[in-house]
Amino acid sequence: MTPLIRRTAGTAVRAFLTLPVGLAAVGLTLTGQPGRAARVRARLTGGDGGDGRDIDGGGEGRAAGWTGLRVLGRAVLGLPLDTAAFVIVGYALFNSVRNFGYPIWYLDTDYHQAWGGPTMAGVWAVHAGGWLLVLALLLHWPVRWLARGQRALDRRIGAGARL
Fold first, then answer.
1. What CA–CA distance (Å, rounded) separates 89 from 19?
2. Cα separation of 42 and 68, whole Å?
3. How far apart are CA 103 and CA 117, in angstroms?
4. Looking at residue 106, what is its pLDDT?
5. Please, what is the Cα angle at 18 between 68 and 35, to 5 degrees?
6. Which residues on neighbouring strands pair with residue 54, listed in sequence order?
7. Distance CA 74, CA 82 (A)
């Protein structure tokens, strides 16, 4: 896997997971577990080393500058970006399964008039190849822009205690 593809896939996965992880962190905060919520949030943003220890040594509830209130603020302020990223990457995942698995879903239909027909191999090649192009453009630019906005918001809210 090339570095560009690896970076793009990593960015898309992180952008996709920001909404459900943020909602889980809000749930933890509202149930009286702000320390856990801070660690969950810090792990998503790369605030800890992946081993569960705080990088700033702040102890429970201050994993990389995140507190319960900051987790709630990040969830509210980041909702438009997080939702857009979740929808776009979710759409990309759904359509990837649909287009790369075209023969599985549409073998029993009349594919002779479909793009790339009259053979199923031609139809699959056109749909899979066309979707690869759309996927590359969709994940490389719009999702990267959304992820950049998410990271900027994380830096401003999560690092506020260290400024």
1. 12
2. 12
3. 12
4. 75
5. 25
6. 48
7. 10
- 104: tokens are 């599985």
Residue among 86, 76, 66, 71 nearest 29 (CA): 71
The three-state secondary structure class of 54 is: strand
Within the chain, what is the greatest distance between any pair of CA atoms? 64
The whole-model pTM stands at: 0.79
Q: pLDDT tens-digit profile of 134-152?
A: 888 888 889 999 999 999 9
Burial class (CB in 10 A: 0-12, 13-18, 19+), 114: middle
* Cα separation, 160 vs 80, whole angstroms: 21
Rounded to whole angstroms, how far apart are CA atoms 47 and 160? 13
Q: Which tokens is 124 given? A: 């699959």
Question: Which residues, 6+ apart, have CB-to-CB distance to 45 below 8 Å?
Answer: 64, 151, 154, 158
